[in-house]
Amino acid sequence: MRKTGTGIRLFFSYVLLAILGLSVLYPTVWILVSSFRPGGAIYSPTFFPSNWTGEHYSALFTDKSFVFGRWYWNTLKIGIFTMLFGTLATTMVAYVLSRFRFKGRKAGLSTLLILGMFPNFMALISIFLLLYQFDLLNTHLALIIVYSCGAPVLSTFIVKGYFDTIPRSLEESARIDGASHLTVFGKIMIPLAKPILTYMAVTTFVGPWVDFILARLVLRSREQWTVAVGLWDLATNFRTANFTMFAAGCVLVALPITIVYLLLQRFIVEGLTSGASKG
Amino acid sequence: MSLTASVLSLIAPGLGQLYNRQFIKGVLFLAIDALGLWYFINHLPRAVWGIVTLGTQKQHMEKVGKITKMVPGDHSIHLLVQGLIILILFMIFAWFYVQAVIDARRNGLVRENGGQTVNFYRSAGALFDRSFPFTMLAVPIVGILFLTIMPIIFGILIAFTNFSGPNFVPPNALVDWVGFRTFTDLLTLKTWSYTFWHVLLWTVEWALLATVTTYLGGMLVAMLVQQPGIRFKKFWRTLFIVPFAIPQLCSALIMNNLFNGEFGPINQYLGMLGIEKIGWLTDPQWAKFTVVLVNAWFGIPVTMMLMFGVLTTIPKDLYEAAEVDGATAFQKFRTITLPRVLFVTAPVLITQFAGNINNFNAIYLLTGGDPKTGDYQFAGQTDLLVTWLYKLTLDNNKYNFASAIGIIVFLIIASISIASYLRTKSFKEEDMVQ
């Protein structure tokens, strides 16, 4: 009796898991298949095309209005610099706020918390005007600066939460041995904080790949664009005419990020959940 | 000696340091002081004037000789931004001034007590020792000041002006301070208030639905995978993380096409089953359903990952004891799993609720706030406050209304956060479970 009950339960569980798995995979497989389908329409009588083509991918790199290679390079450049500066800035702020007690620390923490509660879009116009004042519009430097300075506002609490869990005795003994603050930070804390730094590095690197709002506002000329802006343009202005090209662009943007996320799953989950439980 | 040094530094930072025989530092401070004074004497009055008046000279035609030509007037918004930048620079300068006086006083005290002031090399070394926190924070703070704090102050100030199209946009016109009028307009003018209350209502509905669906969904998926007897647990787990790994920019745009009413495959399959086309994204009711459904697709993986962690902490003997007592699966869920999980994840639930109020991507990329039915002011049926704010800013030039909405969103999020903080605090004190 009990055994058949378990059997039925497992059977239904597997059915449910299969349905869920299908609904997870269906959109991704669909876009992948669409990117290889000849023609430009969304509509297709069959799920798999009768013949496969890579022309949409090559079009993205050779077409005059879609300089995907260029956009890729731009995004890679912005992503790497943002990752370096954003992670560094956040780590420095989080470390100091976690480890040192000084006048203004509490005020600083609350300020960061409050700043995080404003919708980012409120700042759009004035960031635009600020960049205009300093003649930085249409430059990648502008994006790198804005993203890097935004990183501490977004993630200081997550990183600080991680630093808080590292025992103080480690650095105290190093200080007694005569290590400077800089040595303690660079040689002891950074290596210990590797998981959270990986999380920070991935999220700051991915940011420029998916930001289509600020980038679209700042980058005025096509050849300066990032892939996110290009993809947005494909999706909004060319979708009905050339859906398959959008599909190819989507695959090109999503694939590297998805692979990185899946490979570094462990770190990202750790970062996410530690941030979540800290609130 | 400390008094003389402080007074000297108060007259001009650097003098006190010179008096304290710290020559390099003194000269350096004096140089910064001179540079600052020169800059602020030239710029500060105009900055303050700009912020207070927002410009007085309108763009106008002027006769020069025989031809009339357009003379540019004051650009209110540039005046405001420039004014804020200069004020922030001035605050940094003032801070430096205060620090210089404190430094002079401290070194004066050292000398009073017969000590020696340290040389420049050593003082610079203190930047990495005693002043280490400030050295580390200096660059990020400047960045945050200019790229987060200044823009937010600007955003707040705009809500108290009449900066909006088509009549009050520089350079054609001047912008003026109007006090709380934007807020009263938003809440009392028929067209605005109707849109505002409906968008607010939908924002709250959306946040509730989105949070509950992803939360329960994540919990159920996690329990499904975690239950004894299921094989290839690791495989299922990785599979269900996939939606999280795909950037939302891509997946939301994909979903937008998938649910396309005319050509999308979903309606195509339904057609094969003989079901008529559904306006997934074009019918107001269906569109609301679709965004919640698709959001579950985005959001379930995150809660699922969280739940895996929480579920493993529930002791197995609780379930065994319940089984001995003859509890059904549902009873076990209701009396053991749910309360435990809720207790641990309550703060997350609140953060997710707040996050969903601001969930721009899910709505904007999927429906763009549409469908529009015409009775809303610059908004569609699925617009949240944030997407409405965005459209008002970038598509319709209603900057002052956008800012007012931003402030209201901030107030909502802030009160939720405070409530959550108080709640978690009381939870901690109560020590309900364990």
UniProtKB/TrEMBL annotation, chain A:
Gene Ontology CC terms, in alphabetical order: plasma membrane
Segments passing through the bilayer: 12-33, 78-97, 109-134, 140-159, 243-264
Record-linked SUPFAM superfamilies: MetI-like (SSF161098)
Source organism superkingdom: Bacteria
Membrane topology: Multi-pass membrane protein
GO terms, biological process: maltodextrin transmembrane transport
ABC transmembrane type-1 domain residues: 72-264
Compartments, as annotated in UniProt: Cell membrane
One Gene Ontology MF term: ABC-type maltose transporter activity
Keywords: Cell membrane, Membrane, Transmembrane, Transmembrane helix, Transport
Homology family: Belongs to the binding-protein-dependent transport system permease family.
Protein name: Sugar ABC transporter permease
